[in-house]
Design brief:
A hairpin with a 2-residue loop joins strand 4 and strand 5. This protein has two helices and eight strands; from the N terminus they run βαβββββαββ. Helix content is 22%, strand content 45%. By secondary structure, the chain is an alpha+beta fold. Strands 1, 2, 3, 4, 5, 6, 7 and 8 form an eight-stranded mixed beta sheet that branches. It has one domain. The radius of gyration is 19 Å and the shape is elongated. This is Vomeromodulin-like. It comes from Echinops telfairi (Lesser hedgehog tenrec).
Length: 167
């Protein structure tokens, strides 16, 4: 995006634009989405306690998600999910669209013998979290650039940091 006081190219449509989201904004979106990703299924409750993530090449994000699973109101397991997400976002006019997919995840539980019983609740919570990220990123306000009519499929980049988002 052109910065105030900088030169514009002779033909603004030839200008390259990109939007960079701050790590604080992304951290807030992740924490809010994690908080909304609690589920109840078959007498079990699952809620995300912590999410830490780091950006990789090719629009991939590695994440560690810690999920507490309760059965009939009593602690059943703490599950750590090591996940890889595909994340790609673009902006057109004043709307952001995000493609977020859970590519793979490996779960481990404490105690280990509770993993089989907790698996369904963990999978549902991770699915809700992934879908929730897409929905929440659509709600992020996008500033209008100097040429709003020319903002079509502008790539969104992320500040490359390792982040811990807790709720």
């Amino acid at each position: 995006m052109p910065v105030q006081g900088s030169w514009l190219p002779p033909h603004p449509k030839n200008a390259n634009m990109t939007i960079t989201l701050s790590h604080n904004m992304i951290k807030m979106v992740v924490a809010l989405t994690a908080k909304k990703s609690s589920i109840s299924i078959n007498g079990m409750d699952a809620r995300i306690l912590r999410v830490s993530y780091s950006y990789q090449k090719d629009n991939k994000v590695n994440a560690n998600v810690v999920i507490e699973v309760l059965k009939d109101g009593r602690p059943l397991a703490i599950v750590t999910t090591v996940s890889t997400f595909f994340c790609k976002s673009t902006v057109s006019k004043d709307k952001m669209t995000s493609e977020i997919k859970l590519l793979r995840h490996e779960d481990s539980a404490e105690p280990p013998e509770a993993m089989d019983e907790a698996k369904e609740a963990v999978d549902k919570a991770m699915g809700k979290f992934t879908k929730g990220l897409q929905v929440t990123f659509k709600e992020v306000p996008v500033p209008q650039g100097p040429f709003p009519s020319q903002m079509s499929d502008i790539p969104v980049s992320y500040v490359k940091l390792n982040i811990l988002a807790s709720n």
